[in-house]
Amino acid sequence: MKNNKLRKSLLTPPATLALFLIAWTATPLLAQDFDNIEITTIPVRDNIYMLQGSGGNIGVSIGDDGTLIVDDQFAPLTDKIEAAIAELTEMPVSFVVNSHFHYDHTDGNENFGRAGAYIVAQDNSRRRMESTQVLASGRVQERYDEVGLPKITFFDAMRFYFNGEPIDLVNTGNGHTDGDAQVYFREANVIHTGDMFVRYGLPFIDQANGGTMDGMIAALSNLAGLIDDNTLIIPGHGQVANRQDLLEFRDMLVVIRGELVRAKVQELSPEEMLATEPADGYAETNDNTNAWLLRAYDEYIR
Ligand SMILES: [Zn+2]
Known about the structure:
Elements: H1 4-10, H2 14-24, E1 40-45, E2 48-52, E3 58-61, E4 67-70, H3 78-86, E5 93-97, H4 103-106, H5 109-114, E6 118-122, H6 123-129, E7 133-134, E8 140-141, E9 152-154, E10 157-162, E11 165-170, E12 182-185, E13 190-192, H7 213-226, E14 232-234, H8 243-265, H9 270-275, H10 287-301
Parallel strand pairs: 4-5, 5-6, 6-9, 13-14
Antiparallel strand pairs: 1-2, 2-3, 3-4, 7-8, 10-11, 11-12, 12-13
Zinc ion (ZN) is lined by residues 100, 102, 176, 195, 204.
């Protein structure tokens, strides 16, 4: 077994695997599936919190200026999310930052937009949300009404001065999608990475919407340079992490990319590439892993 050292820390715990399956199942979720979902509030540091329910982790900044959240999960959960925030602060949600356009991070946009929040995103994410998209997973994401679209967008970076600290929104090029935003709360030293960094094993890369493995690796290296060993990381999915976790995640992608490039140099067919088990030590060999590898390999051989 290759890469045995990292196997333990990177294998998927059952709870987050369930979350992943909920998020990426091809079957549309019914509203009633959310009835039993509870929102859990995790203090991260200072005035920054993480909310977990179903879908991507929500980052929350509370303070005198108002409430800023990063991502808003699924629309049927908006009331529960607002109730969880009300336990922390009386201030309304003034800003919703979308880490990227995927539905499990933005489905609450129309609700929060209607309630008066300004939605903020990287410009490509707004463009994706303006029309119906098909994800690399095959999932169809419908366009959002105007009220759910970002009113404020940025290209490479932008900064908020909010709740007593600079909050940087950063895009380092195509990675998980073509419109990713990482949100760095500088004073608290907390960063929300969106799905550029997740803790469920092999990360979903949305090649159908500008995502690339090389881009994710480059973005992760950039992030590693931006933060320090005391930074607390809110990942797109999974528990709070640190810089070392992020580096191990990046290194997993670097190792697998090396295997894929080796296969390409050897001019292996996709089937022959799969037979070399490039993700061995990081993921079980199964249909999901193979589909992931085929999409990633296609980035290098097309
Ligand atoms: Zn995503």
